[in-house]
Amino acid sequence: MAPKRKRTSPATSYQVFLSFRGPDTRQGFTDVLYHALVDAGIRVFRDNEEIRKGEYIGEEILRAIEDSRIFVPIFSRTYAFSKWCLIELAKMVESKEKSSGSKRILPIFYDASVNDVKLKTELYTEALSIHREKFSPNTVQQWEKTLREAGKIKGWELKDKGHAEFAKEFVRKVSVELKVKKKYVTGSLVERIDEQDALMSLLDLKSSHDVRLVWIHGMGGIGKTTLAQAVFNRLCDHFGGSSFLLDMRETANRKGIEYLQRQLLQDLGVKSADVTDENDGIWMISEKLQNRKVLVIFDDVDDLEQIGKLAGEAGWFGEGSRIIITSRNKNVPVFEGGRVEILEAEPMKFEESLLLFSRHAFGNENPPEDFRDLSEEVVRITGGLPLALEVVGSQLRTSYEHRDRVHWDHMIGALQKIPARKVQDRLKISYDALDWEAKQIFLDIACFFINEEKTKAIYMWQSCGFEPYLAVKELVDASLIKLADENKFSMHDQLRDLGRKIVRDERLKDPGKPCSRIWMHEDALKVLREEEGKENVEMLSLSYNELSKDFILTKQELKSFKNLRFLSLCGSNFLGDLEHALPKLIWLSWRSCPDVFQGTNLYLKNLIVLDLSRSLISETWKGWSQIGMCKELKVLDLTSCHRLTKTPDLSVCTKLERLILNDCVNLVEIDHSVGTLKCLKYLNASGCHYLRDVPEVICSLDGVEEIVMVAKGNFRDILKLPDSIGTLSRLKHLSVSLARSTPPNSLGYLKSLVKLDLSWSKMAELPESIGGLVKLEYLSLHFCRGIKELPDSMRDLKSLAELDISMSGITRLPSIKYLQELKVINMRGSVIEWIPISIRKLKKLEKLDIQDCDHLRYIPTAMDPSLLTVSCSAPEMGFGEQRTRIDWETHLESQREMGRAPCCDKANVKKGPWSPEEDAKLKDYIEKHGTGGNWFALPRTAGLKRCWKSCQLRYKEMGRAPCCDQANVKKGPWSAEEDAKLNDYIEKHGTGVNWITLPRTAGLKRCWKSCRLRWLNYLRPNIKHGEFSDVEDRVICTLFATIGSRWSIIAAQLPGRTTNGIKNYWNMKLKKKLMGNFYINPPGTSNLSCGLPSTPEQRHHFIAPFSPTIPTLSVPSSSTSNFYELSPFNSSSSSSAATNLQPQETLVGPINMYGHEAASCSFSDGSSVDKDHHHHQFNHHQQVPNNNLQGFSPSHHGNEILGLGDQDIINYGSNSTR
Length: 1218
What we know:
Blueprint: E1 16-19, H1 22-25, H2 29-39, E2 44-46, H3 59-67, E3 70-75, H4 83-98, E4 104-105, E5 108-109, H5 114-117, H6 122-132, H7 137-151, E6 156-157, H8 163-178, H9 193-203, E7 212-217, H10 224-235, E8 241-245, H11 248-255, H12 257-267, H13 278-288, E9 294-298, H14 304-310, E10 322-327, E11 339-344, H15 350-362, H16 372-382, H17 386-401, H18 405-416, H19 423-432, H20 436-449, H21 454-463, H22 468-477, E12 482-483, E13 489-490, H23 493-504, H24 506-509, E14 517-518, H25 521-529, E15 539-542, H26 545-548, E16 552-553, H27 555-558, E17 566-570, E18 573-577, E19 587-591, E20 598-600, E21 609-611, E22 635-637, E23 658-660, E24 682-684, E25 706-709, E26 733-736, E27 755-757, E28 778-780, E29 802-804, E30 824-826, E31 847-849, E32 869-871, H28 888-896, H29 916-929, H30 938-942, H31 948-957, H32 976-989, H33 998-1002, H34 1008-1019, H35 1030-1043, H36 1047-1052, H37 1059-1076, E33 1088-1089, H38 1096-1103, E34 1112-1114, E35 1124-1127, H39 1134-1139, E36 1160-1163, E37 1168-1170, H40 1194-1202, E38 1209-1210
Parallel strand pairs: 1-2, 1-3, 3-4, 3-5, 5-6, 7-10, 7-11, 8-9, 9-10, 14-15, 15-17, 16-18, 17-19, 18-20, 19-21, 21-22, 22-23, 23-24, 24-25, 25-26, 26-27, 27-28, 28-29, 29-30, 30-31, 31-32
Antiparallel strand pairs: 12-13, 33-36, 34-35, 35-38, 36-37
């Protein structure tokens, strides 16, 4: 084992650290780059010079450098003249060196060159000369070395690019570097929060200095993998690297431990993970990962020796690392130097089991009354195993639809005969119910096609005479297989093992013959060497790299495979005359094919699918004349054939339907013979960096249905679409990354187009003709930063169901009321400023994603109640930088209450007094889920036949939550011990907790509301304490003049400030400061009190002289309108207005500060006086007393703080003034 070493702990509170010289770039380039990164959802630390104190680098900066994964020094002309910049750079270089490759430095050369940084010019050498006069020789020498090291790193030069254009490209690069792929978890499963919390408790992320392993054990099908996937998705963003090695038992058997070691290293960012043998892998893991804080999941482990070769010691990983292992085995491995925790996966509770079963058997969350007794009996028999509940429920669904209780009785009888622990035997009941074709397809998937895309298999099955679409649907409906992301087959390991056991049992009928399907390489090698029984083999895989890469196949070994329809090879080769070999082969998967073809006469007349991906072949490969030119060929996959510069002559393949050239990075040309492929339906040339245009010849093929040419990585965009693109009358899906040129108008002629994906394109606009895409259902403009607005013709896209403008440059949407089919709008990370009021007209809208929309200022009221899913920004689990935001989710939830939920159908709900049982159900549900959930869905999920409104009213009648019982809760000041308990709980469980149950689970004898307010107003780590700045004063005054005392909205504009804090500051200080400038106590009076102005106009009169850029309010003519239109003041005379009160010339007219209609002051004796009465007491030319509001420049503070333009609309509730 490797020796233990001291480790560092790179966490990920920040992902990117920006280092720059403030006077050079802070207000320009750095600001643009910072907001571009933030808009892309990246956590960025931007150094604030105010936190630099003394002679040493601040602790906050040190921590930010250690936490970040990518360092971005912005080299400007005076960068090296700043000691702080040089200290930061030295720390960044040091942190990168310690990280063993998990951290990167991406230098930007702003207006300094690479040679300046390498100290080959006078610019930075002069800076170091100045530093030598103040600092020790060792310090300056270290800085000199750091600069030279940084100069060796390939960076980005700004040159003549605009700031925004450069920032877009840079963000794209950073996004690729930081990308973490989360694991797919099927939506039909019941989320078991208790299990997740138990696992989170054992992981104990608060303990950052140890390395911890959690061993989850339990029987197959109990939900171990699902639990690990759910927690992985919650945590993977918060580690320096993450890896999920799925189904290790199967992978190790088929590909070996070296493959798993290599995969682990690659997942965790080790680029040169060339593992030659398992000992080499052990050494690389222990050496390369020892300074990295990582999250690793090893799924389905059955051999403890495997863990010893992948995670043998805690010292192999950085401090704070967490390792989760799922296994059916109770035995725990030795984990030297680390802490081991054990979690036994428990069966589902009865209520959870019934819910899961009901989803699959009835498509609902509760069984109907006439089937409740049978449902509960099935749930009891299956013993809380999620897989069994899912499969059995799916099988019984058809019987329920026909109201066939007899079949249910038969199923229950069959299940009762099989012991609960024999899961596979119970699952086989569902397999036995399939027809013959579905069984064959199930066995093919179980043996060969798990995690494989379904399209190629469909072609093979069709060639066999099957009806694969019907069979696959039958298997999906029976929950025997799933179609995961990217349309790939997935299957539970218990079902996989069942399928393979059925295949192995074939030998019991005829012991002398091999199985019909051979997927293990040892068995395949054995069968190849034998003479007997080969005609029985239908599918064979020889794809294990280490044993098969040099294997030679001859006619002698292949001649007896009369019925082989699928052959999978990896790196092997054919040799000699192969005439009449493999006569029924339909699919040849020959990955890593060598560049020299040694066979002759290999004519595969029935070949339908040819997969040569990741091969060493070129267009001159000799194999093209034989196996590559089959007349029946329909699918040709050349993915990642890096030596290919031109596609081969394909004119013989007249039936070819799918041509895949994905990631052929050196491909320059598509051969003109492609123009003869009249059957071609699909072309994928994504990642072909040198293929500059969509080939004109493609546009002559009427049958093309899908074109995918998406650029990847450090790509060059496709320059343009040909004008003839509009002739593709059957084109349904077009995905391209375009350069600056606007797509041709002929794009609008694609009448069959259903999906248009222009993500990452650089174009500045869409053609007006896009309105002609009458069948378009999906439009993506993701990361199209050049597009600022959408054409008005968008209203003609009557079939559009999903619109993706995430991270785009679009600032506003056109009127979308005509898009009545729209279901999903994704605006995540965009610069959208307001959502049009016409969104209310979209009756089918289901999801609105406005996460990280920092510029968003307005959402219309009275949103349609069908809008049940709203994704808003919220810090997950309390990690990272938390920012104060307007609570749009709460805003929209309040709008949903304006509509009637489906559960209020009078025919289906119960009325009258509530029973104790109903009260108990409602109380239990609220205690578990809180009051912030979806009230529309509550009756169904809680098992109540009541209207949602009735449930809401009943809950209010039930009084306080249990934690608020006056006799049991503590009041008064909070102790330090209580604060610590609350802090610990939030840090562990995040801010999305159920506040009602928090006091009990956190061990606090406080009301839940008291806990929530204590956290929000006092304990949150991002709360700003101390004096308010001048800028904050101006923002408060500006917004108060516009919207009055809407303190929560004002707080959203002041990150770190709480609603209560701003309200108290206004009432106790700022309001008095403003009043003190104008209130002159009449003679003989001592106490003068004045009510605040009540109308917007009066508020403007009150504050305008101190904030001359306050927007004027113009109320729309319609009396029913519920919004204000903001238009900024003309700032031509703002400077004088800010400093001198000129009653006859100021922005607000004569010095009638509160307006004539309602302006009055009340004295302590109850009398009042008109303000105009005291006008003579002002010196019209007197300088205004210092009010901390002078210099409020309209160009810098007014609209920028509000984020509004002249046409922007913002909703503040009702037409009444505040």
